[in-house]
## 1
Amino acid sequence: MSPKSTSSAAFQGELGAFSHAAAQKLLGRKIRALPCQSFRDVFLALASGKAATAVIPIENTLHGSVHENYDHLLEFGFHVIGETSLRISHQLIAMPGVRFRDVHRVFSHPVALNQCQRFFQKHKRIEAVPFYDTAGSVKMLKDEQPPSAAAIASETASKIYGGIILKRNIEDDPQNFTRFFLLSKQDSSRKNTRGQSKTALVFSVANHPGSLFKVLACFALRDITLTKIESRPLRGKPWEYMFYVDFLGSTEDQRTKNALANLAELAQFFKILGSYRPTP
Amino acid sequence: MSPKSTSSAAFQGELGAFSHAAAQKLLGRKIRALPCQSFRDVFLALASGKAATAVIPIENTLHGSVHENYDHLLEFGFHVIGETSLRISHQLIAMPGVRFRDVHRVFSHPVALNQCQRFFQKHKRIEAVPFYDTAGSVKMLKDEQPPSAAAIASETASKIYGGIILKRNIEDDPQNFTRFFLLSKQDSSRKNTRGQSKTALVFSVANHPGSLFKVLACFALRDITLTKIESRPLRGKPWEYMFYVDFLGSTEDQRTKNALANLAELAQFFKILGSYRPTP
């Protein structure tokens, strides 16, 4: 890998997207950012070597797991080498010179607009205008300078496009967090043998009562703490499921090795997505 | 309850939203529809008696569980009395007289636009324009008759607003399903003692290794089949979780009663959301 690409990260959305902020938290502010249109494009950028790493949202406290990204992880076979969580806080952003009392239209992604309902109820003169992307709406303010307009996006987006934050943290629910995975083509689990490692795992079991219970025994018998478990119906196979499990420990720990050997006896399919140390 | 309100259903979105289609599938086409702006408004409509039932999305095959609706279910304490799944298929809809070759702009919710990427790649003359709602974009075509315009929404929305379907099923992924719950203030589990009942349950357990394993033993020891399990971190309580579990059987079955008595010994908190017979 060339030194140039070592610190690059692909993510979905424009510069300043929440995934971009997560990439900076995971890899530092000097990261070379590679914005992509779709999640699939993010994976393709990593596959082709255009980016050395990729940052994807995997779970949100309000909206649940991003199944699409689990699908891409299984298809592409990349390794999870890091994890972090971001609070999704929405800023009301305008270009310099625009005062709050001048604002009559606010552009953003409908999900973000919907997370700021109280703001729009309080300021009835302001119209919420749907846009394709949160950070993209700030970019549009900069490029097109529409009158009386503001956008809702991250503080990172405001900085990147030279915006001014008119109102901070206008989201209804302050407990809105997204968890992100950092991906690489290289496995990093051997580097994570010390400290609070986590491991992410996907498996499926035969469809009969108690089969999940037996799989969980592999972990419970060894006092391994699960931090996530989720079933997901398999496409086109009613009553069959894929399971997502995260647990404390590294694949380099002996007890994890024992648990996984045990799991291999019971599961129809299993794949370790990666062992890593989370970034708080 | 007045006879007038018995067959009414509140749901989020405009008339013709996918939740409206789910309400028709659950309750029949003659249902009195009560469109609401937000999920919270849906619950408030049921609480105030404006609607006799409510229909909410609870899980999507691509986007995961709708945690927000689990939160509202716990807050409002309503009963789940039905369930159905809908395939989310997107139709390209225009007003009568508009031909496909005339279409240069397509309005819809960005999530729907994003699920039809191949359509836009194939037809590069057509611009995707974000709108606040799928069905609402068809309503807008009807009300404002913008030139060269179409919308992406459900077949139900096309029928309601007098649209013409120009292209059918333009979604990239045909395996996009949403599961909906039907809610009522009245518990219906006593009516569901025969046939393939399902029960939805929420619980939390103390945070130590193996506690989930013990809870699952309550079901596994009685050969009760789980159809969903999902952990969700508790807000503001790191390392503590709420679990969502669905299983086959009714709360009226003796073995379910035994399992729940056993669960009551082990769980910190548990709440039965409802027993019901799914609508295929």
## 2
Amino acid sequence: MIPKFEAGYEHLKVTALAGGVGGAKLLVGLDKVLQPGQLTAIVNTGDDFSHFGLHISPDLDSVCYALAGLADPMHGWGRKDESWQVLEELRRIGAPDWFALGDRDLAWHLERQRLLSEGKSLTEATAHFCEIFGIQSRVLPMCDEPAPTLIKTKEGEWLGFQDYFVRLRCQPEIAEIALLGNKEISTSELVIQALKDADLIVLAPSNPWVSIDPILALEGVESILQEKTVISVSPIIQGSALKGPAAKMFSDLGIHPSSEAVRQHYEDFLDGFIFDDLDVKDAEKWQASAIINEACQTIMKTDEDKTALAKAVISLGARILQGR
Amino acid sequence: MIPKFEAGYEHLKVTALAGGVGGAKLLVGLDKVLQPGQLTAIVNTGDDFSHFGLHISPDLDSVCYALAGLADPMHGWGRKDESWQVLEELRRIGAPDWFALGDRDLAWHLERQRLLSEGKSLTEATAHFCEIFGIQSRVLPMCDEPAPTLIKTKEGEWLGFQDYFVRLRCQPEIAEIALLGNKEISTSELVIQALKDADLIVLAPSNPWVSIDPILALEGVESILQEKTVISVSPIIQGSALKGPAAKMFSDLGIHPSSEAVRQHYEDFLDGFIFDDLDVKDAEKWQASAIINEACQTIMKTDEDKTALAKAVISLGARILQGR
């Protein structure tokens, strides 16, 4: 049973770790339910890459466009009311078109690249975007350095994430995932502070392997989580992911994809776990643990779905916090 | 009297030095009059700069778009049949809009930046453009390194050329022009070869100070010109430039702007000089010199004007070559 959402949470500080589409949806719900200043989103940048000399940050843009109300609801990436003049010309001149940038989307990419070229950090450029588009919550890239997620295929080839994800449409079987380009990378002071200041840390329903794990792999992050109240929302429902290769990644890596597998993935520091109503029957067979499970509708089609899930997350978090 | 253009020039190798708009027009004429392989254009890159992280090469693009038949005849820069979706969005988000990049123009800028990011040279990227758009003549940037033309104002401030030219609309009075960023810069082997192989070297009707001089300032260029038959077409008519700040630059630097001043500017290596019919009366008062003067219509409004001027240039060149 999900406790009803009640007032009295306006001092709760929530920091959410998120990847792209699914994560962005829950962030929209949290952003609507919480007051300005309550929510900080820490967003995966392991998928970032350089294309046409421009810094591309797919998850950060999905999150920012969603929070700004600019996201294309059809694709789950890019902007709504988009035009494609530049992409059409790129096709005409035989330039690579596998990563589709719309004209409006491209304008922001140009402006961000200008800011980065001037020595601004990705964190600062993101703050500038939030200011332009009136986003009330704070959005932080997980770090300012390049921290590429690399995919090793069963054929032994190393791929950049977008190569795997967009160009090769997740076809290759995965043998290994290397986070942060196999380097030790620190996050920013702002990220560390947002984690330390949080009453509640939420792992959004994003891909555990390539959206959340890169953030967890940053120096110092996981040790803070172990001291905090952490809730995760399963991106896996009935053994599948609504979008993206999360389920296939579990399988490729020899793990049966399920909500329980997600819970186990995070069990070192998890306090609460929200999974979909559709998995209630399966949950009866899960191993006992101190993690508090909660079933609810996690599929977010409408804004009401997003706020309902956000309320469920906060309510469960508040309940756990009260119980401490 | 201009000799009639006659066949028999199909083995003449012509290398033309050019800047943007005016230079591009004569190049179009030469390109139409000559056979594939006869013409090489060496184009000023002193105006190049970086904008939104993209390499911008205004003269090179004016020349390439003109030769490809894609140039906007209204502005003299950018592409015809252009759309402005990206620029409109840049304005909406408060990004700098002083350098106008249309959507189609931007596609080529992105593709060029991709090639440069992959380690291709500006020369190679330009060759790729010529191939895509079926340009029969060869276009070479004057060099592959950054070689910025810097403008010192009478207030003592140093400006990048586009800052002076586009953002400040040539308002500041010029105290000094520093070519090649005040460094010694070599050009490419291809440029040296195109100069050495040329039967005839043409200085297009481009700004002497900031379009032609940067090319002449490259190591080894001027010494080759001294051995060659060199013809210049005056960009100054009746003391004014048709476009751009050439006349104002002469004045700022204390020289009365005139066709004769252009001829004097190049007199160390010039063999023939073409100036406009409108200046014939003035020419009677010019100092005597070994340079062969030729008056004709140099204003190029139509393609016929361009080919007529190109024929005049080649005829004069052939006449000088025959006389040697």
## 3
Amino acid sequence: MKATKAHWPTVVIVGVGLIGGSIGLALKARKRAGRVIGVGRSPASLAEAKRLHAIDEASTDLAAAVAVADLVVVATGVASIPGILDQVDTAARPGTLVTDAGSTKARIVAAWEKGRSLRGTRKSGSSLRGRQARFVGAHPVAGSHRRGPAAADPQLFQGRVTIVTPAAATPPADVEAITDFWSALGSNVATMTPRDHDRILAMTSHAPHVVAAAVAAATPAEARPFTAGGWRDTTRIAAGDPELWADILLDNAPAVARALSRIAGVTEKILDALESNDRRRLVSLLMRAKEDRDALGS
Amino acid sequence: MKATKAHWPTVVIVGVGLIGGSIGLALKARKRAGRVIGVGRSPASLAEAKRLHAIDEASTDLAAAVAVADLVVVATGVASIPGILDQVDTAARPGTLVTDAGSTKARIVAAWEKGRSLRGTRKSGSSLRGRQARFVGAHPVAGSHRRGPAAADPQLFQGRVTIVTPAAATPPADVEAITDFWSALGSNVATMTPRDHDRILAMTSHAPHVVAAAVAAATPAEARPFTAGGWRDTTRIAAGDPELWADILLDNAPAVARALSRIAGVTEKILDALESNDRRRLVSLLMRAKEDRDALGS
């Protein structure tokens, strides 16, 4: 327990969709920010986020907003995050805290660290510069197949895990400051390397997404009227945004391929038991899966 | 619209778990039965079903209960259904309506029809006899990964599909009578051959169950704390009863293998797009899956 609650005078959220909007709502519900500025490209989304009180102010000018920020959260699709982080770093006051909410981490953190290593090579007139801001990547393992500020929820992070993924060179004080931020939203923070994050999330999120999409697409239209709760549950995440998910999967392709291979291996074992009419082995395989599933609750 | 609602003076439900209990609750809520007798092997389940008012009377003596039935529903696991149908047929008054709620149909209907074809070969002292009862197989495509009478719900069938699967030789009047029964519980009845049923359900239910089990079992324990809603949804049905599911899968093994092969084919396409870094193709595959999923609603 800390004696005082962490508080940030000005928080800038880049991207006011489900995650960005939920961050704004959580900050305001918990009174952890003086003001929240939402930055985005879509005036409609910004207006909706403001109407829903997820943000206090809206801006399409990232540099101007970031220049007054104490903390910046980049909550856009993973493909755009490295470029936005560069823009944030250029516009932010030195020492500004920065984090992101991307579903992959290795590529994003590596891109930031590459910029950091350029420190000291800055030349007059060159675009090369070291990092001025203090970035620590993060991934709130919460979400939905829905999107947009209308789906935002101040409780989205409550009791859920956020994984914070410092690089080897990240100062411990920065990790602590970003941990405080995600904790302030109600989440339980775990810390691991970006590579461990991507390996684990390939198994718990990215590969299941591929499998859900495959089940949905493999089901012929004539069979659809005869689906029930099981099919609906199994395929639900296939309703997620294809552009966002393509970028996540491409960002983490080797780990996703390995996770799919693990899943295919278990499927083969079940199929073998089925085709050899080995009921005992089939029950045993299904029982192990049930135990693994039951360990998580409903 | 019928002028009068179908009503059965005495309905016997063999198996008072989730499905059998829900049938009892629905019959009573809709006042479609004079009395409902539950038959089972477990006195505890029977007592619970009676306490929950899913049945009026409980019996462990199948023959005695069935002898007074106007309609019998067999709502046990698929492996036991053919044997129970034989017992029901032996004990029932000639012309008694009989249906089942098994998740597979071809083997169950074939076993019944085999008995029907023995009509006329009945010999004194032989156990061989033709069918006295009027059986039409059915499958209410509703359910849950939960089980037992405590999970029963009078609305379980409301607005859901029940597939009725007559054999080629089933009299149309019997199909109509059994259609009336499942309609009376609130379900929308579709009619198809047992083989079509099994082929379609392999795709909409049995193969997704295998996939869900494979995802659950492939996820290492260290990754479990980092699962979110997507993993939980995708794997939910893996919590189903392994014994019941092993029998369903074994009953429909060739169709399940074909459905799994379809799913593997789509998975391979997604993996190919991923490994060749073909974003456009990956988005297109995920978009098709999303459209297929969106066609069903949440």
